[in-house]
Amino acid sequence: MRSPHRPIITRALLIGTAFSLLPACTQKEPPPPVALPTDKDSVTLIEKTPVIDVHTHTFNARFLPVKGIALGKRDIHPLLSLASDELVIAIANLIVWTTPKSPDPSDKRHLSPSDRQPNSRLMEDLARSVNRDAMALQGNRKPRSITPEKVASEPAVQGYIKLKTGESTFDNLSAPEKARLTQVVKMFGDGSATATQNREGKDEIKHFIDTLTSDEAAMEGLFRLDHTIQRKRQVDLIVSHMMDMAPTYNQPEDGKDLLKFERQQIPRVNRQQQKANGNMLYFAAYSPFRDQWGEGAAKGHALQIVKDAYHKQGAFGVKVYPPSGYAPSGNVIPHCPFSFASQPCEQWKARYKPNGVKLDPTVLDDRLLELFRWCVAEDVPVFTHCGTGEFQARKGYAKLAHPQHWKRLLTRHPELSNLRLCFGHAGAGGFWFDSSEDADWGRTVYELCCQYPNVYCEFGCFDAIADPVARANFTRQLASLIKKSHDDQTPFQFSKKIMYGSDWFMPMPAAADRVNYLNSFRVAILKAGGPQPAELYRRFFFKNALDYLNAPKRIQKGGLPPALKLHLNSLLDM
């Protein structure tokens, strides 16, 4: 395998050529604000109906293996693939270092424009950390030493510091800085991050970076700021979903740059829940690779982590994320990826060839089946990513989230027929916006929702909803499916299985204004409800969510913050 360290002159020439081929990076205008109806009945319905967002995130960069993500995925992003391991590590370390280490938010790198200078302490510290990290990655082979000057010349580093210090907006960055930072952000989303402005005039890339590097204790408040008009909160309750990514990207949890999932992350998100005044609850993440990777690795360890979170740490449910490398059933071990960089294959080995022995795919099936059987026995809700893109560990892993895998699981295991399951993203946007693209995803989600008593879906990150034409298509499709479910007398009515979600704070280029995103759904659901929209509207925005969450049973179990218990009971009484 070729070394990832190409000659500096060659790489510089390639990067220059790549930038010259890029189209000009222009600032897109935000979509027009959607006009809410002004008739008395609609105004009253909107004002009196609470909103539950069943798909949000409240982690920051120290909850994610940022360095592992950058090293494992940068070879599939054109510009980052031309950078050395060392420069990729530099921007990853910079992102983590500028993120507070709660509960001591003062432990944070406060940047200034002078930090971009090669002789600054920050550049020297970054170069030192990069050389240390690169040495550990390469084992016995000594990597090329990187200098503070080289770190300071990296466009992503320069652009990042300019944004974080307020010295520049994204629109005013240089073309190389824009291009490189865009590629960095794409590694955390669906690859469509652009410079669309939001309501406050901040572009989506800056919004994402600022939120990702915020104090974890401030996250629920940041969500509230994004969803407030004239001091009135627009969302009454959020469901925060954790991500357990360290095993996927094979980054050791040092407890500082990457918090330990079981010992630090879960207690900290529980602390967020405790301090949110009843406005937040959370799902603990599950990774089947925990049985073979990391501290405490042993058969059943992955399941024990979520059991302890549910029974002892106030978790409401379980989040699974198939694009990180596994399907809910019918697993097949993918081929080791070919890459000029070393880390993609090393990460593949951590997932599928632990201790040098290739994993039998049925082992993954058995681990997932054990989880789902426990969830059915305890009536614990499961939330799964179900979209055609987003945060896949390697290109092609998104297909592991296809609802057909879940259909096969539920068909082969009748004992799981009562599994309380929500399809995040509802199979992605193609089917829902009247497009033939990947239509079988959304169609299968619809069928499963109508066939099983506790299967639901939500429409997080449907940023096309802000476009009037796309919104009209969505409304027609949703209304058509609701009517079809009623006319076909399906076992379970589709109108009782749909929920609102946002996937905050992931970038949404076409719907950067989060209130406008919510209002777009308000208008769509009102129109889909026909002449008497109140029942569908109330179900979509909060009643179906309470059913999916199994709120009465979770309250009865105990272990929730008093304010959350009180808030849930008030919602159940509405």
UniProtKB/TrEMBL annotation:
Region (Disordered): 101-120
Gene3D superfamilies named among the record's database cross-references: Metal-dependent hydrolases
Domain of life: Bacteria
InterPro entries noted in UniProt: Amidohydro-rel (IPR006680), Metal_Hydrolase (IPR032466)
Comp. bias intervals (Basic and acidic residues): 104-113
Domain Amidohydrolase-related: 364-546
Stated name of the protein: Amidohydrolase family protein
